[in-house]
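Thanks for the sequence, V.! I ran Damage-inducible protein DinB right away. Repeating your input here for the record:
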Amino acid sequence: MNDTSVITQFYKELEAEIPATRKCIERVSENLYTWKPHEKSMTMGYLTSLVTEIPRWIAVMIKSGEIDFQTFQHTQANTTQEMVTLFDTYTNEAKQALKELTVDQLSKPFVLRSGNQIMINSPLIENLSSTLNHWVHHRGQLTVYMRLNNIDVPSIYGPSADEKTF
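Predicted structure:
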């Protein structure tokens, strides 16, 4: 697989994950944002926000080559509709960034930091892949939260117990 086809694959993977992810986000009511399954777990609102925001990370990674946890502006949404609107914005930004991504950029470093502390410093190509995986992981976590709250889980890679078709 050449580098151009890797970019195309990232784009296709992002697009393929958007519909089911959007369905998950739009089904989580803000009245459940403070709920969590265990005292050590994140709240449903934070998890929904994270699933909403991760596509934005892709755009930022490509455009700036860095995310600094001390200065990064996280998603601030108080309602389900605000969350869905942000998700649509962020996925469009990610798609546009991937369309503009060049082969040369793939080998440039991406740095994840918290101020002066560097947590990751490796080629962008590796981090795009892990970010997409991270996104899917947290969406899966969100579907468990949904199930525990009797929210219909959408079909994702095939039928779910709640949706027989996709």
